[in-house]
From TrEMBL:
GO MF annotation terms: dioxygenase activity; iron ion binding; L-ascorbic acid binding; oxidoreductase activity, acting on paired donors, with incorporation or reduction of molecular oxygen
Protein's UniProt name: Fe2OG dioxygenase domain-containing protein
Transmembrane regions listed in the UniProt entry: 40-60
Pfam families for the chain: 2OG-FeII_Oxy_3
Annotated Fe2OG dioxygenase domain residues: 198-299
Length: 310
């Protein structure tokens, strides 16, 4: 065998050899490996940083809000059926308690004349009081009106003879009956089994800083827990998102996902009041937002009669 082969075996470069250059090759190979190594490290770092950036973005950005009803569109009926919570299990009101649960938005129930009239009533009534913080209510059953950081009775606040007129209550009743009909039709509840309950109230929200818990409308809550007797909640909006105010969307929250109803004057939004419908109102960013909450119960003992002149 040749010397070359033996040298290969020993893999030692012979002194002064000018032929084959295994050391150069090894050096080239090492350089190549180093370059590949650094490329690999750079690649791994890029992947790690990209993954971390995506993770942080997903974790720390606000949840994406899907819009169930846009303010600049009109819906004859936008609805979704959802699984009911266990909240109704112990209820005995078989004709009325939700057989299925859901969320509904309808824009064609209340006329613009009715909306204008009720907005006038809300502004007039609330002008006698008003919370120091961002949320004021005027309860049509009890007459409770936010004033400063407490509540007063609207009936004692009206100077002699002024106040709500029969016409105001007539329009409220007409609107309430239309909403009750829509809820009964949708949730297949006979009207005789569905009763108006308290509180039923005008609300006004603005950007003032909250002064007490009543002003903090932006906390997720369940109406049945907050108000006790509710089976079906409805809201009639008297002003419009992105026209009369910004922020202030109504948000349903479902395990980290959020679904918005954008208020629109004349829009009726109704839903079953149990923990299948956790919701809140976003903080207002500008303007003033007016709405009426009209609530219904299946419990005849929690029924109230229609508000009327006192
Ligand atoms: O005004 C609204 O859109 C909803 C208010 C609300 O959730 C409530 O009063 O319980
Ligand atoms: Fe609520």
């Amino acid at each position: 065998m040749s010397e070359v082969k033996r040298r290969d075996k020993n893999s030692k470069k012979p002194k002064g050899s000018s032929i084959s250059r295994p050391d150069d090759e090894r050096q080239n190979h090492t350089e190549f490996r180093l370059k590949t190594h650094w490329k690999y490290i750079a690649y791994v770092l890029t992947v790690v940083f990209t993954a971390a950036a995506i993770y942080l973005k997903v974790v720390y950005t606000e949840p994406r809000v899907a819009t169930f009803a846009h303010a600049d569109r009109q819906y004859q009926k936008q609805h979704v059926t959802i699984v009911c919570s266990d909240d109704y299990k112990r209820d005995t009101f078989t004709e009325c308690k939700p057989k299925f649960c859901g969320r509904v938005v309808m824009d064609g129930i209340v006329t613009s004349e009715e909306v204008d009239h009720l907005l006038g009533v809300a502004k007039m009534g609330l002008s006698y009081g008003g919370s120091n913080g961002g949320a004021s209510i005027l309860d049509l059953h009890s007459g409770a009106l936010s004033k400063g950081d407490k509540f007063i009775s609207i009936y004692s606040a009206f100077p002699g003879g002024e106040g709500f007129k029969e016409e105001d209550f007539k329009i409220y009743r007409t609107v309430k009956n239309k909403i009750q009909q829509a809820i009964g039709d949708h949730f297949k509840v006979p009207l005789h089994a569905l009763h108006l309950t308290k509180p039923t109230f005008f609300s006004r929200m603005n950007t003032s800083e909250a002064k007490n818990i009543h002003d903090e409308y932006w906390h997720p809550h369940v109406d049945r827990q907050t108000y006790g007797s509710f089976h079906y909640t409805s809201l009639l909006y008297l002003s419009t998102f992105n026209k009369d105010f910004t922020g202030g969307r109504f948000i349903f929250t479902d395990n980290g996902t959020e679904t918005a109803v954008e208020p629109r004057a004349g829009r009726v939004s109704f839903f079953t009041s149990g923990s299948e419908n956790v919701h809140f109102v976003e903080k207002l960013k500008s303007g003033v937002r007016y709405a009426i909450t009209v609530s219904f119960t299946c419990d005849p003992e929690k029924a109230i009669s229609d508000p009327d002149v006192v």
